[in-house]
Amino acid sequence: MKVEVFYFEGCPNHGPAVQRVKEILKEEGVAAQVIEVNVPDQATALALGFLGSPTIRIGGLDVEPSARSSQNFGMSCRTYWDSGKREGLPSRGVIRAAIKEALARDPDAKDCCQAPSRPTADNPDKPDRSSLFMTSSVVAAILASFCCILPIVFALTGFTVIGASALFAEWRPYLLAATFGLLGFGFYFAYRPARSNCGPGGVGTMPAPKRSGRLMLWLATAAVVIFAAFPYFSGTVAELLLSQSDSAAAQTSQGPPNLQHASIAIEGMDCAACATAIENKLKAVPGVREAKVSFEQGTAEVDYETGAASVEQLEKAVQEAGYRVLSKS
Question: Measured between alpha carbons, how far is 315 from 281 in angstroms, rounded to an integer?
């Protein structure tokens, strides 16, 4: 079904005519795009068969049956009979009758373009699916990197949840798959071609998303990539946030210390951030002179002063950081 409103600039009834047509289409349950056609001059008026502003055609026919044979084309304001008097707009009954007439000629016109699932001006409350997928993908990406975010958070706040990082590490592959799957759906709904399957009038055409929406999608994609890749640079972030300018060993006795070395095997580290968090915890133990934790090897190498610290204290520090001690030497 083709719905057109012809007008010229400055016509006071142009806007009200468009609004009235849209209201009646909605009441009748017909999802049709209202095409507004500006008639700039007399030559165009003659070419289009323009009977004055506003002229409304539905299904290619004037809404006023008695005017369909008129030849009074030109740049003038148009009036319509309504309850025995002339008005600047066709009555709601005339427009409604024209819609029903067009539907009778083409019964499929009403159903071929139902109201689109994407939000439009007539359906503002329905959520934009691309935005939902975009938000969900960012959340999933953050959760996928929690295995390396949590150690830093725990180290900064002092809180520890044993096994929390390992749990998120176990689920990381699935969360990443969900992340990029959701992001893919977001791009599909943001960039899919506009539908225009209802004939020459372009009825039911789905407008492309606003440029701002696509920009937000790309920003969300950048955020997803950063969070998804966080484990690969988490060690640097952890060092910046957790670095200590002085160690607890500065508080020990004067003179050459009697140092001992301990090698502790640690289970549960998922990235460099875990190693940095454990290292920071070990350096806080009084008497520890040096602590190096390797994520790749799963070990902590600690030099500590005899009498000032013990292996038991070092193991306890590892456990307080939220990780398990496997063995010692």
Answer: 11
